[in-house]
Amino acid sequence: MPFKTNVLARHVLAVLLLLFSLNTIAQKTVTGKITSNTDKQALPGATVQVKGTKMATQTGVDGSFSIKVPKDNSVLSISVVGFERMEIGLSGKTDLGEIPLVQSTSTLNDVVVTGYTAQKKKDITGAVAVVNIKDLKSVPGSTTESLLQGQAAGVTVINSGQPGGGSNVRIRGIANLYNVDPLVIVDGVQSSLHDLNVNDIESIQVLKDAGATAIYGIQGSNGVIIVTTKRGKGRATISYDMFVGTTRPLKNGFNLAGSQTWADVYWLQFYNSNIIPANNWFGQGGPTYAPPTLPAYLAPTPFTNGGTTANPLYAANQNPSTYDIVSNQITKTNLVGTDWFHEIFKPAPITQHTISASYAGEKSSYYFSFGYMDDEGTLINTYLKRYSVRANTTFNIKDHIRIGENAYIVYKQNPQISNQNEGNAISLSYRIPPLIPVYDVAGNFAGTHSFTINNSGNPVADQKRQANNTGDDWQINGNLFAEVDFLKHFTLRTSIGGTVENYYYNYFNYTPYENAEGSTAPNGFVEGAGFYNTMVWTNTLNYTLVIGDHTIKALAGTEAKNFDGRGLQGSEASYFSTNPSYWTLNTGNPATQAVSSVNGPYQSALYSQFGRLDYSYKDKYLLAGTIRRDQSSIFAPGHQVGTFPSVSAGWRISQEDFMKNVTWLRDLKLRGSWGKSGNLSNVPNTNPFNLFSASAFNSYYDINGTSTSSQLGFYPSHLANTATTWENDILTDIGFDASFSHFDVTFDWFKKTISGLLYTLPAAVTVGGATRPDVNFGSI
Q1: Where does the pLDDT of residue 299 fall: very low under 50, low under 70, confident under 90, or very high at 90 and above?
Q2: Region 189-212: what's the mean pLDDT?
Q3: Are 642 and 220 in contact (CB under 8 A)?
Q4: Which residue, of 38, 69, 267, 433, has the fewest CB within 10 Å?
């Protein structure tokens, strides 16, 4: 018995050793180096994948790679943007040496993200524009959306001009009366382009027709911009990107009339109105003028306080605790003329730095970056200082399980001006006459108070008084995700993420003593803060099946979104001191203190179910369909649910036999789509409710009906409409994509019809002062 046991043990050990050796052979390591066939330069970041598996790696900075393969006869698939894909059969090889890739002049095989999934550009049946990131980065700017101008057909960007200022992004024009901003998706999460570090961006796609946007339902009416940020590539590398430059204002500014012209015009105005005689300027014993000889010097009553040229009485000569700067101001006419444009606009530096670290291996990958942007605006006392950190990681738990995250943290200092307001410094600079100097004889700001010409303010004073205003913002956005491959054809993905944003601002309104209006108005201080939250939970199931020449891809998913936020603002006036250290909400006049809610409070939720089916035959005939069902809390029951379908098709004519001899045309695809999408971005979350507010000003009766001025009364502040629902958009699109030897051409004809247009209709005065609800009232 002991002998038989020992023999059995030896047989078992032999079998285990054999299995171990077979496993060792199966898991052999293959190495090589990827280069360009034209200049023999190494290609870092190329993807090397074992065909038919999820096993992949990427080349390092020298183009080399090392990968374990499961079988001796495995096939490696090698791809990198800008080069043709190559497949290599191993057949026992372990060292492949140098592998040259053929450079491609077409982007047809580029993989782009379109609506919860990714497709090759040549297989897309919708109208999708792919932005060239290299071109995007070639133009400096402090916000990513401002850089989109001119980068994609059908996309228009109108910039505010100030550092960190907002931009209006329009995809295929303006299609409704209110909010026409596109939906922005960053790494699968609804977000914003505004504060992204452009050096972190891997790709940007713009979805324009219903075949591409309908899967986003009521959020896709204005188009969709999908951003994918960088992930780890190749061997561990550290990169540094820097840009330093200047932004310069227009050389000639607004090119306005000078002092002499203004003096001539005003003299004629007063003369023709019989305000002054021809031989006496303003009746003040000034020089004698007779038309057509016009004045070379304009000086309206310069010494209204009894002073003389030799000894002018001025506020600065009086007791600082009792002087009246308004009554004692003396302003000399600027004979040369004040160039107000260049007084407020100066050349300004702009600097951007990004340090990043990247790595990708068999078990994990990461991309980390730190960014700093300093953009001093050409308008004095405007600026953006932005600090950002990004961390994108992926971990391969097993061959078929992956987890990871995308995180972006931003802090910025960016006080804003209202540059669409007639009272800002820009509009003041072309309204204030050049006869007025920047400063009066004592060095204080000069203005229209002494020169009763118009009521414009001093733009230099306006901007210099904003030097200590603040506008701070903190954001965290991103997501956590997990992916599982199972049953060979399925991939399950779950992602939870969103955006958390907190903001704070304050500003001080000085008494504009130099102005014709408001020269004695009390100063005031305003302080506010608030937050926005967006949470998104997305679950998708992908199915891929290839049978001969037939390829079928299916997607099903659910998504839940929650939005909430609120803000608070306080103000106070009549501060004894204008020193910024004195700016608090309890150091002014307590009787002027006021508190209000701003930007909310609000809450809304959206729950969605969606699906997509793609079919292709021989990469020649393409068919796709999507459907989405949305349910929104913004509307009243009975009007909360909508369904948004689309269908699209494509025919790659260039793949037909009769096109094989056309060598100058690389690809030609006809495509068309029809679909429905919706829009609810114009509707407040309180639209279906009657709201009431309390105020002694609006009602002197308390809730019990007692007439009193000491208690607050209640009054209707908002009228409800329970029948409102989203706009319904129907979009038809026909187009083609053509790829030639050295360039690509895209053409689209489209028609968009909007029904149930959302609008706040006016109401009779007898309705009262309550705000009106949004209703569905027309079509475009």
Answers
A1: very low
A2: 92
A3: no
A4: 38
pLDDT at 105 over 90: no
Distance in angstroms (rounded) separating the CA atoms of residues 176 and 752: 11
Q: How many residues does the chain have?
A: 780
| Amino acid, single-letter form, for residue 143 | T
Cα gap 754→461, rounded to integer Å: 47
Q: What per-residue string of b and e applies to 308-339 under the rule 16 or more CB within 10 Å gives b?
A: eeeebbbbeeeeeeeeebbebbbbbbbbebbb
- Of 536, 533, 473, nearest in space to 499 by CA: 533
Asked if 354 and 371 touch (Cβ cutoff 8 Å), the reply is yes
> Strand ranges (DSSP E) for 294-382?
348-360, 364-376
Find tokens 């051409």 and name the residue.
Answer: 745
Cis amide prior to 292 (ω within 30 degrees): yes
Say which residues have a Cβ less than 8 Å from residue 181's Cβ, sequence separation at least 6: 168, 169, 222, 681
Q: What is the pLDDT of residues 505-552, one digit of tens each?
A: 999 999 998 988 888 889 999 999 999 999 999 999 999 999 989 999
C-alpha pair distances (Å), 80 with each of 34, 42, 83, 421: 10, 12, 6, 49
Alpha carbon distance 777, 166 (integer Å): 30
Letter for the amino acid at 470?
Answer: T
Q: Which amino acid is at 323?
A: Y
The pTM of this model reads 0.81
- Report residue 185: phi and psi, to 5°: -120, 120
Across 697-709, b (16+ Cβ under 10 Å) vs e yields eebeebeeeeeee
Whose tokens are 């430059």? That residue is 245
Torsion 184-186-189-192 (CA) sign:
negative
Q: Is 282 helix (H, G, I), strand (E, B) or coil?
A: coil
Contact 41, 58 (CB under 8 A): no
Determine phi and psi for 149, rounding to 5 degrees: -55, 125
Query: Using an 8 Å Cβ cutoff, are 176 and 757 in contact?
Result: yes
Helix (H) or strand (E) holding 525: strand 524-547
Burial 684-695 (b: 16+ CB within 10 A, else e): ebbbbeeeeeee
Pairing relationship of beta strands 550-573 and 128-131 according to DSSP bridges: unpaired
**35 or 328, greater pLDDT:** 35
In this predicted structure, the answer to whether residue 23 has a pLDDT above a threshold of 50 is no
Interval 465-482: pLDDT, tens:
999 999 999 999 999 999
Q: What is the pLDDT of residue 20?
A: 41
Residues 6+ apart with CB under 8 A from 323: 315, 316
Which pLDDT score is estimated for 649? 96
Distance CA 582, CA 574 (A): 12
Q: Is the peptide bond before 601 cis (omega within 30 degrees of 0)?
A: yes
Q: Is the pLDDT of residue 633 over 90?
A: yes
Phi-psi region of 217 (alpha: psi -120 to 50; beta: other; left: phi over 0): left
Q: How far apart are CA 239 and CA 355, in angstroms?
A: 6
- From CA 474, how far away is CA 602, in angstroms rounded? 20
Q: For 60, what's the count of Cα atoms within 13 Å in the CB-facing half-sphere?
A: 14
What is the average pLDDT across 625-640? 94
